[in-house]
Amino acid sequence: MLRSPLNYFIDPVLKAPTIGCMLMCLAASLVGVLVFLRKESLLGESLSHAAYPGIIFGVVLAGFLFGDSPNETSIAVTVLAGAYVTSFIGLKVIAWLEERLRLRSDSALTFVLATFMGIGLTAASHIQFTHTALYRQAQSYLFGQAATMTDQHIYMYAILAGITIAMVLLFYKELQVITFDRDFARTVGFNVPFIDLLVFLLIVLAVVLGLRSVGVVLISAMFIAPPVAARQYTNRMSIMFLIAGTIGVVSGFLGNYLSVEVATVLEEWYPGLRLPLPTGPMIIIVASIICILSLLLAPERGLLRRLLRMARFRYDCLCENILKSIWLHGARAHIAFDEIAKYQGISRCYLHIILFKLMVDGWMVKMRSGSYRLTKDGRLRASRIIRLHRLWELYLTDQLGLGVERIHRNAEEMEHILTPEIEEQLTQLLQHPTSDPHHQPIPPRRPL
Q1: pTM to 2 decimals?
Q2: Phi/psi of residue 335, each to 5°?
């Protein structure tokens, strides 16, 4: 049976990994909002890889200071300090390459990512033979090893996460203005270089924070997935911080929970199968799933909602085109199905469905002979579409000087999206016209 989620906060073994990962994901998600909005997503990836040499040197330093078998706390302190130093050096190298050597941002970021990772791997290959035990400790920071966290890690991560939250709260106004309008920030007297340095320090801090739980390779994902998901639900930066932080905390908990529970269930179902589910990758998988679901299902910005709006708009355009084609045969004309189908590029089955829906909505009626006729409401709607079409054609010829042969296609598109306000402006601008460029009458304006 599955453990209660509450056990992950009170169990002596599960408590430290769960709370530590939740704190890490919270801080990384908050910093990720700034990284995402500043369009510097690759910066987190570069700095996380730049931290790897610091991890190796930190492990070696711990062995030098405390012997070949240093305790967990000693290694954690030296590793995090080393990672912070090399990440900050990587940050300075990126700035130097961009400002002094005029390299493009992506080139500088990629250069630092590859160079520092290469230095780290070279150093790691050396200590693999000279300090084998320490090498295994260093490798745990490459992909993370949250399961071996202790209470000391909780305190350490709580302090680092608290610093991140405090900086965001204290400098929220400055961060908001500089993120969206740097020129205005300089005009009102904000210290832009200081805030930029603060943001970079927060990024480095979040990178260091996540090394123990998700590792060098995966930490950059926590900078991206929660903010991208949060962006789908709001246009306000403050709300985006709250949503991204919540997603980060949920990802941290579910990553731990699923890592243990799913592995346990699989072991019970398939006793001979060993399928470990590392906590760090599980955290990233959960965050990625939340991000993908948000991209697909968000109420306003989600892909599914946009596809539904597009489908609805196409359907409305098709209905209006059918009403218009019948109206052009005569406002009270009876039109056979084959005559309607001749001018519509859709299947006959789909056309039957649309015609049935138009009858249900009260736009047309079907006669005993099988032909179709517009109702009063249908005639009003069709005449308005014709009016908008011909008004726009007249606008294109009189105001923009386009030739008559070039205006029909554009008017076919615009007739479906012109609002009553634009219709009124066109009417005033064209001085209440009565005919279009083809000398066809423009139907008068009538309320639907």
Answers
A1: 0.81
A2: -115, 130
